[in-house]
Amino acid sequence: MQQAFLDVNGVRTNVLTFGKWVEESFKPSDPKDIILMIPGNPGVTGFYKMFMHTMHEKTGFPVWIVGHAGHEIPKNNTVDPIPPLKGNEDLFRMQGQIKHKIDFINKYVPENAKLHIVGHSIGSYVILNLLKEESIRSRVVDVNLLFPAIETMAETRNGKFMTTYVKPIVWLILFLTWIYSILPSVISNFFMYVYMKVESVPKMHFRTLTRFIEPSILEKVFDFAFEELDLVKERDNAVIKQNSDKIRILYGRRDGWAPESYYNRLKADIPEVKAEVSDYDHAFVFQQSRQIGSLVSEWISGVA
């Protein structure tokens, strides 16, 4: 595993890889397959480590993830720091995140690479927009969308909860996050351990979570989330139909963002698309990384 903060669309961005690093060249004998992960929101790379490790282990292909712009901060943020949200909204909102992924692909993915893209939640919406770029679409072998947030997000159970209960108190959440960030580490770590114990979050995510609880990060995460609720309405059937031979989609029966009814609606509208329903969780990275990683590896191996 390797990771580093690289300049992507003008924002220092955490990039994490298993297998070949993004700046390494391919040998003539190497397979040209690359698996690229586009995360959900928050777009924090550390949550996907076990999932990525599983896919690398099962396929033997390099597996890369590019975090969302502004969702992670390097330890040394004084040199070329991450810009604040205010005045830089175009970098951190949806169109900025799409441009961010286009810039990453153009900079780091070799033109002759066979690109397997995996998207989680709102990452699926980003990917559907990437497919509108012919220079990217022509290199994509397959698209694997996990628990996709690609339609009427505001009407879902979680969308209504965010709008009704979370949005009015974001200021309070950010204030409490600021207090948390200035606590002595022994106290803040204790609170984090308690939270992880109550929510059954594996210990491997401790460091990722402690770095994530930072006011300037959460401000961008919430801003992006509320834009999603306003923006993601009608499903883009045109791009799905155009790429139905490449797309495969996994839904969850208990999913609060992409419920089973959305699967039924999709199959009624586009019966040829490959889609299925599972008992896995939307936030699969906490408990089911190995299972989902194995499943997606089978999908990718079937088309590689």
Molecular structure report:
It contains 13 helices and eight strands. The two termini are 23 Å apart. With 304 residues, it is α/β, with parallel strands linked by helices. The mean pLDDT is 95. Helices cover 44% and strands 16% of the residues. It is globular and about 50 Å long. An eight-stranded mixed sheet has the order 1-2-4-3-5-6-7-8, sandwiched between helices. It has helices spanning 49-59, 89-92, 94-108, 122-130, 134-137, 157-166, 170-182, 185-199, 206-212, 215-231, 237-242, 260-269, 289-301; strands at 2-8, 11-18, 33-38, 63-66, 114-120, 140-146, 247-252, 274-278. α1 runs parallel beside α13 (289-301) and α3 crosses α4 (122-130).
State which percent range the strand residues make up: 15-25%
Quickly count the helices.
13
Mean pLDDT: 95
Distance between termini? 23 Å
Number of DSSP E strands: 8
Query: How can the largest sheet be summarized?
Result: 8 strands, mixed
Order of strands, widest sheet:
1-2-4-3-5-6-7-8
The helix/strand order is EEEHEHHEHHEHHHHHHEHEH
Poorly predicted segments: none
Shape: globular
Helix content: 40-55%
Gyration radius (Cα, Å) is 19 Å
Helix-and-strand structural type: alpha/beta
